[in-house]
Design a protein that fits this description.
alpha+beta; 4-stranded antiparallel beta sheet; about 15% strand
Length: about 190
């Protein structure tokens, strides 16, 4: 294989790995019943005029499976953090005791579990679209090389390799989704 084709294949695999990493990050935000600091990953707090991730201005702890505690580094940030959690619309009701914010993570209802499962499926479908787009870009680049004179056999085998990569990453997405759905549906 030519250097150009190897470069295209490496770039495609890198892109597909990025898609998988993004999917895993998005799935962390979908809660599965037990408390985790990752549930608050989408919360940004107005910290002296700039939007700052919650975990950069407070200490997040999980004392048990149903509770998250938030200890701000500056006590005066308590109300601001509480407001940011409400604005993030995560379905939590933060309680402020003057020192820390306590969030009780309610158990998931069957209906909520199904909604979260649908949300996970949608994220997985978006990831599959990302994988297919990477395949399309790679095949376009390979066709361009073929027009520039690279042998048809080399291009055909490169396209086959891109398809094999695509298949393996789609399978990986399905496996990640199956694990997440099992985690969501487990009572």
């Amino acid at each position: 294989m030519t250097e150009e084709i190897e470069f295209i294949l490496e770039g495609t695999e890198e892109s597909m790995n990025g898609t998988i990493a993004h999917l895993e990050k998005e799935l962390l935000n979908i809660r599965a019943g037990k408390a985790s600091p990752a549930m608050l990953g989408s919360v940004f707090v107005d910290y002296y005029g700039s939007q700052t991730p919650l975990n950069q201005i407070a200490n997040l702890n999980v004392p048990d499976a149903r509770t998250i505690t938030i200890q701000p580094y500056e006590k005066k940030m308590l109300q601001t953090i509480e407001k940011a959690i409400m604005v993030a619309n995560l379905g939590f009701n933060p309680m402020n005791n003057g020192d820390v914010i306590i969030i009780s993570v309610p158990p998931l209802t069957e209906e909520r579990r199904r909604d979260l499962s649908k949300q996970a499926k949608a994220e997985a479908e978006d990831a599959k679209i990302g994988i297919r787009n990477a395949r399309k870009d790679a095949n376009t680049d390979i066709k361009k090389l073929e027009k520039e004179g690279t042998s048809e056999d080399i291009c055909k085998s490169a396209e086959d390799e891109v398809q094999n990569l695509t298949n393996s990453y789609i399978k990986k997405i399905d496996e990640i989704l199956a694990l997440k759905e099992a985690e969501i549906m487990k009572v």
